[in-house]
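Journal club prep, notes for RB
We'll compare a predicted complex against what the paper describes. Inputs for the pyridoxal-5'-phosphate case:
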Amino acid sequence: MTRLFKKIAVRTGLARLDPGVQKRLGGDYFYLRTYSSDVLSAPIKDLELLEALERAADVAKSQNHQTPTIGPIIDLSQGMPDLSNFFPLPAILQEATFRKEATVNLQKYPRAFGQPGILSSVARKIAADTGVVYDPACEILLCNGASQGLAHALECFVDPGGAVVLFDPCYLFYPWLAQTRGLRIRRVGGPKKGLAGRDQDPNDRRLNQRELERAMRGAKAIIINSPSNPDGSMIHIDDLKLIAALAARHNCIIISDEVYSGFCWSEKFTSIASITAARARTIVISSVSKSHGLPGLRAGWCAGPAALIRPLAMLMSIRVPCVSAMVQEVLPDLIESESRFAPARHNQFLARRDSALAQAEANGFKAEAPDGAFYLWSKVPRGFSSGYEFARWCLERRSVVVMPGEPFGPSGKGMFRYSWGGLQESFTTAMQRIQAVEP
Ligand SMILES: Cc1ncc(COP(=O)(O)O)c(C=O)c1O
């Protein structure tokens, strides 16, 4: 339902006929008129599936559940890299917990932007990784993981009804965020040639310039994610320049989600903000969720010119006043530690990528070698009509959790995504369980 139609349907009570609305309300229509358009636009089917997958993943974590003939559930659905051997997290956390300042800081609201020392650590990291220099005094802002930065950047720069350009396929949160805010989504084929059914040379990694130009005309923002979730593609440097030029021509904000910048296999990471034409209109968003394997810490940041960071900080301070003082306490040590383990992380994960590819292939799944990140992206086996059907089968019959491809975009139809970033042995076992399947 479109937003307007939804409003009319809610006012007239017709919305109760919508199966999605019925599910949300659980048959209790008294509350129908209290729901906002954002809630009524939520992707209920995908969220329900994710909930089921998450429940299964929880069981996997508790390790109590054993499918008698198969063994414990193995979760390949989430991007949670195992980096526990690279840095002494408990020590960092314990030290921080017992530092006197940490306790004192908990008794007051920390600075909305983040404590100055932390912002300097983030600025140093970004400069070392990408060569882009940000002023920690006004160009960096902490957030509760990249997700919060993404949500608020869209809220800050795109009004409901405005257009946002997304790649196909892309991280499923982007269309969900756009959808629940009533934004118009314009899809363009990604570097590995998304947009289902398009007949392209698979070796041509360049974006389609005409398509991009058409999509960016009149758009308020474009979200890029290189390396990308789900297919591990990276945007060619000349295409980054093209995006920068088009964004400048059409006065479009670039939101660059760089959470996988530490996981590049084919080439060095380039931030679009390092292109002069782009820096003035780019918000870079990242976090320690992937780089340090710490998605539960909820620690991330946004960086950009002060004119973009200031309104973002203002909005965030109204929505979620600040990032926890405890997180702010541990963040500098975590950020500083990365340069020490990054080379080992690179070598180990590159070897693991090749091993994962070989294992997938040996078990009947073809996947292109990802240029970055730690996922494989494959067609579901013959006999399954969709990624959803295959994901359900994997969970119910093989105790393996994978992500269906459909929520990632039109080209995700009949695909599935599986992560090789977790424990290596689990990946091997999971591949053996789901190999050469017939439904
Ligand atoms: C591309 C991308 N961006 C952002 C996130 C979420 O990051 P965070 O945990 O920092 O909110 C993910 C998580 O999978 C992701 O794949």
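Talking point for the session: The radius of gyration is 22 Å.
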